[in-house]
Amino acid sequence: MTERLYYNDGHLARFVSRVVSCESCEGGFDVRLEGTAFFPGGGGQEADGGTLGGMRLLSLRETDEGDIAHILPGPLEPGAEVEGVLDWDMRFARMQSHSGEHIVSGTVHRLFGYDNVGFHMGESGMTLDFSGELTPRDIGLVELEANRAVWRDAPVRTLLPGRDELEKLDFRSKKELSGLVRLVEIEGVDLCACCAPHVSRTGEVGLIKVVDYMRHRGGMRLTVLAGEAAYRDCAEVYVQNSSISAALSAKRLETAAAVRRSLAERSEEHSALTALKKELMQLKSAALRPTEGNICIFERDMDMVSLRELVNSGMQLAGGVCAAFCGEDGDYRYIIGSLSANLRSAAGDINAALCGRGGGNKTMIQGSCRAKRADIEAYFAV
């Protein structure tokens, strides 16, 4: 069985070990070592990356026999001593996150008695699923207590108790465990079964931030950042908030109220604009005159909803069609309506004459065209 060097030292970024075996396998060579600092993944955390014997690891996996298979693009000589070098920045970021997860989960369990029933560590943060619901106030308390645990710089220890000793311990675990059980103890915060590498003291986690939460399967799902990822998120939020503060002439900690005021003002303006549009449509509709022929209307700037309302009024007055065009000369959007003509059948001829494209039903079609105003007026004057 491969000795797991990361069990006792999660900070081991370089190591030397002897090659036990090397065999060809699908996609490369399966190399087994006497001991390794590479974590093969598990418990919600991805496998490490790095180089072994100067070659970049293609993948890592744990075998049924308890060995760790290092998949490489080339072979290594059995019996040779080789150096392994971890991608340390990624390993440390994951240790910060995973230790942060233990702190949050232990805090939730201590304060509210809920179990962590799901954990996933991704590129955009960690998701933690709990067996009961938490209010926003509860979540704020959990976050504060978790960061207080970080600030205490409590030691993080790994334990490998015997079966008799294990039965006397009160520890968290998502499933029944057999064989050798490794526990991660965060002093005063948590005791949990875990196979992954962790920081040696909580101060290394740096910062814990809950960035989102939602009800999930009768419980609660939290999205959490820890370490440098949490710092970078807070820094970017500060930049965004500063921009909002400047744009709204609001103090840095009063931007939410300023945004609400701005949205309320916008809603009032929208209501006023809607009323004005309705009044304008009534005036424009009243200005239309009955005709046995066609009505042709041109507007420079009008939304399609208002244009449709104008056409609906014009259809009642036109013996032929009511055609409304909006835009610049030679670049129009159009809506054409009629109570007498079959516009679905006529759409092809209309679009061909106006360099347009569009369609609809028997009573109304809409689309766009490239014809000049004079040509449009001449077409519908026929």
Account of the 3D structure:
By secondary structure, the protein is of the alpha+beta class. The protein has three domains: 3-86, Elongation Factor Tu (Ef-tu), domain 3 (Beta Barrel), CATH 2.40.30.130; 91-239, 2-Layer Sandwich (Threonyl-tRNA Synthetase, Chain A, domain 2); 288-381, Diaminopimelate Epimerase, Chain A, domain 1 (Roll), CATH 3.10.310. It contains eight helices and 21 strands. It has helices spanning 88-112, 136-151, 163-167, 228-248, 255-287, 304-315, 343-354, 373-381, and strands at 3-4, 14-25, 28-33, 35-36, 50-52, 55-56, 59-62, 68-72, 81-86, 116-122, 125-130, 156-159, 183-186, 190-193, 208-216, 219-226, 295-299, 322-328, 331-337, 356-360, 364-369. The strands form five sheets. The chain has a seven-stranded antiparallel sheet with strand order 6-5-9-2-3-8-7, with no helix packed on it. Strands 17-18-19-21-20 form a five-stranded mixed sheet, sandwiched between helices. Helix 1 (88-112) packs across helix 2, helix 4 crosses helix 5 and helix 5 runs parallel beside helix 6. The longest helix has 33 residues, at 255-287. The radius of gyration is 35 Å and the shape is elongated. It starts with a strand and ends with a helix.
